[in-house]
Amino acid sequence: MEITVINGFAGMIKLTMLPNAHIKPQNIPVFLNSFRPDLRFIATNLQFEYSYHPSGLIDKDEQILLDTTEDLLSRMSEVLR
Fold first, then answer.
1. CB-based contacts of 79: which residues, under 8 Å, 6+ apart?
2. Which sequence spans correspond to the domains of the chain?
3. By the 8 A CB rule, do 11 and 52 touch?
C-alpha cells in the first residue's frame, strides 16, 4: 500500500496514504466494515484511524498495536488494491 505515515499510540493507530495512492476508492466501505465500529476514514487527509481500548500493560499494548497494524495493512492490501 502507498502509506506515508503509520502512527501508533495508546488507543489509536493512524494510517496516512499518499495523495495519489492507487487504491479502489469504491472499496473503502468494505474495508471500514471489516473493522467496524473501530475504524474510520478521514477523506480530507487520506487517513484511516483505528481506535482500541489499551489494556494499560505496556507489553500487551505493544503486541496489540503491532498485531492490529499488521491486520489493517493486510486487509487494506486485499480490499483496496
1. 24, 27, 30, 31, 34
2. 3-80
3. yes
- Using alpha carbons, select from 25, 70, 71, 9 the residue that is nearest to residue 17: 25
Amino acid 8 reads G
pLDDT at 80: 94
Nearest C-alpha neighbor of 6 from the set 79, 77, 69: 69
Task: Find the helix or strand (DSSP H, E) in which 14 lies.
Answer: strand 12-17
Return the C-alpha cell found at 58: 505496556
- Please enumerate, as own/partner, the contacts of 52-61 that have beta carbons within 8 Å and a separation of 24 or more: 52/11, 52/12, 52/13, 53/11, 54/10, 54/11, 61/10
CA gap 12, 46 in Å, rounded: 16
pTM of the full predicted structure? 0.90
